Amino acid sequence: MRILVLGAGGVGGYFGGRLVEKREDVTFLVRERRKQLLENNGLVIRSVKGDLTFKPKLITKTDKTDPFDLVLFSTKAYHLEEAINDLKPFVGEQTVILPLLNGIAHLPLLKKAFGDDQVIGGLCFIETTLNKAGEVVHTSALDRLVFGEPDHQGSERIQRITDALSDTKAEFVLSDHITQDMWHKYLFITVMSGVTTLMRAPIGPIRESDGGRDFIRRLFEEGAQIMKASGAPIDNAIVDKHMQLIDQLGYDMKSSMQRDMEKGSLIEGKHLQGYLLQLAKESHVDAPLLSVVYQNLKVYEKMV
Ligand SMILES: NC(=O)C1=CN([C@@H]2O[C@H](COP(=O)(O)OP(=O)(O)OC[C@H]3O[C@@H](n4cnc5c(N)ncnc54)[C@H](OP(=O)(O)O)[C@@H]3O)[C@@H](O)[C@H]2O)C=CC1
Ligand SMILES: CC(C)(CO)C(=O)C(=O)O
């Protein structure tokens, strides 16, 4: 299977790297500056699950090659439109796009660009970031990528994809309820990135501060109420489940949005909290806590 990874950053670099390690046929679609760095230094992964350095197969948007079978779409949301345009020449009628962005708002854009049937569902749980040298730094053992057909389960193509993604050092998991999984992850990350950026702390001190757990829970409840009101297929027990997950996270665990803020980088507030607030408005649901979380992000964006 010819796999194209769009975006050789924290997520694409890591999962693409684990597939290269297994000797899958992986190419990375990158922009010029990243290409030069990767040509000079190789793609370097510093991981608690084992380091890896390799010379990646690279293309940029103007290169010519046959369409790929599978695309791991792993850019940030604020690069989505440009990335969709750059990807178009490498997508054929049989190409499957597996998006790994946090959130849900990218799905209609991808489907509009590539067709409903060519976009499957995907998400990941991982803690990676690029350091100053452009290396992928993976800081906790978590490296789960979940994927699946949104509508028709057990298709032949998903079986082929599952085979290609199996037996690597990372955890690739096929789901038969990926749409619900994506909404659940969307709820989780909206709250996780929301509280860690608002309180400028990893999850440990937040959940253990006086009233901290209660604040996290109320934000989950607010988000879940909005999602239900807009018809999202979420589980009735999801707030309890997510609170259990919050309690299981390492004391020092941060969100990727928080790490981006610490680096002074752009953030995905509009795509995550902003889009959920838009759904709240459309469904006439009050969202006082989420509004505070989003305002904090907008102030950061004003100053960055
Ligand atoms: N990192 C994490 O721990 C987690 C991240 N996520 C989600 O995964 C998504 C990706 O995040 P992450 O990997 O951290 O982001 P990064 O910023 O680390 O990587 C994104 C990469 O995309 C590249 N890129 C952007 N536009 C293009 C383009 N047109 N063509 C080629 N490459 C392009 C950027 O390259 P360039 O150098 O050219 O800018 C960059 O290397 C986000 O939605 C994030 O929320 C989800 C779970 C965990
Ligand atoms: C859930 C979490 C915190 C880790 O995968 C995440 O998605 C992120 O940091 O963006």
Automatic annotation (TrEMBL):
EC number: 1.1.1.169
Domain Ketopantoate reductase N-terminal: 3-150
Pathway: Cofactor biosynthesis; (R)-pantothenate biosynthesis; (R)-pantoate from 3-methyl-2-oxobutanoate: step 2/2
Stored Pfam families: ApbA, ApbA_C
Single GO cellular component term: cytoplasm
Stretches assigned to the Ketopantoate reductase C-terminal domain: 178-301
Domain of life: Bacteria
Entry's Gene Ontology molecular function annotations: 2-dehydropantoate 2-reductase activity
Secretion signal, residue range per the UniProt entry: none
GO BP field: pantothenate biosynthetic process
Keywords assigned by UniProt, alphabetized: NADP, Oxidoreductase, Pantothenate biosynthesis
Reactions accelerated catalytically: (R)-pantoate + NADP(+) = 2-dehydropantoate + NADPH + H(+)
InterPro entries per record: 6-PGluconate_DH-like_C_sf (IPR008927), 6PGD_dom2 (IPR013328), ApbA (IPR003710), KPA_reductase (IPR013752), KPR-Related (IPR051402), KPR_N (IPR013332), NAD(P)-bd_dom_sf (IPR036291)
Family label: Belongs to the ketopantoate reductase family.
Stated role: Catalyzes the NADPH-dependent reduction of ketopantoate into pantoic acid.
Protein name: 2-dehydropantoate 2-reductase
UniProt organism field: Sporolactobacillus laevolacticus DSM 442
Origin organism lineage: Bacteria, Bacillati, Bacillota, Bacilli, Bacillales
